[in-house]
């Protein structure tokens, strides 16, 4: 187990605030903030040196993401947010009229709109899987899959209740059926251990500003090597091709890896901060982080039940995550405002309170939340 006091020193806000709202946006560690400042000083460098540093930082970040997912860095491209990653797949997958896409009906709009757009622009059928009690299981998904199903898209962890889909069994099902399996991982990567190879994931994308402790405008898209060549870039830039600008001969020579989807200059300051945040996450270890976060939500669930609050999140270990949502005993808005008055920060979603601790939170943070309910 990591040394919590040492970790918390990276997040000075915690001395004044009990921050339990990482499903909305995380805090950023000091070492990552310093990287942001350092990147500003690079602007005064000689152009070639500045470009070399930027490229090196981007490559190190791609390699760190690959380590986090058990993929290869060639399968990673940096994007600005989850929506960009999802749209790269949606527009590049060569889906046509008569094909269908299967998506749970309780997804965040970012994982619905790209597929709705295909329905309207190309006549692709969109099959919505109705949730049961707020949850969608593999057996529900199977009922909506047929011979024309080309793609299944879902969130690893639900944004409202923290329901965790069992990626491995869903991925194996998709692999047997030849279905592209697309995962929105913004509510899981950095909090839960993910192995894209073991789970047979075709593509996975996430923004960096939640569990990856990074600035807005940062994110990544993973595309499995076997799928990479069949996803066609919708847009191209000079960074999508292998040829250097001085040698360009009016030919499209796409890069052999996922960087073929890269559009121009990236958020180099944000990527620099992301690199340092990933270093911290990898140093602590994803198995240790996940285990610790589940222990915190266990403690929270126990305390909530003792106080008579109804837990909305699924409590089966297979479907647990670092998000715990509950229906408060009493007026939820009043309780939410009272928590804010005591500098305890959570989210209010659909009249429920959503609590989402990260690895820098403590058992004392959970106790303070319970105290002020």
Brief summary:
The protein is an alpha/beta fold. It has helices at residues 4-8, 30-41, 47-69, 82-92, 113-122, 138-142, 167-177, 225-228, 268-284, 286-306, 332-341, 363-371, and strands at residues 18-19, 76-79, 100-104, 125-129, 149-155, 180-184, 203-207, 219-223, 310-311, 324-327, 344-345, 347-349, 352-355. The chain folds into 2 domains: 4-25 and 285-372, Aspartate Aminotransferase, domain 1 (Alpha-Beta Complex); 37-283, Type I PLP-dependent aspartate aminotransferase-like (Major domain) (Aspartate Aminotransferase, domain 2), CATH 3.40.640.
Secondary structure: elements and pairs:
Layout: H1 4-8, E1 18-19, H2 30-41, H3 47-69, E2 76-79, H4 82-92, E3 100-104, H5 113-122, E4 125-129, H6 138-142, E5 149-155, H7 167-177, E6 180-184, E7 203-207, E8 219-223, H8 225-228, H9 268-284, H10 286-306, E9 310-311, E10 324-327, H11 332-341, E11 344-345, E12 347-349, E13 352-355, H12 363-371
Parallel strand pairs: 1-11, 3-4, 3-5, 5-6, 6-7
Antiparallel strand pairs: 2-8, 7-8, 9-10, 10-13, 12-13
Helix pairs in contact: 2-9, 3-9, 10-12
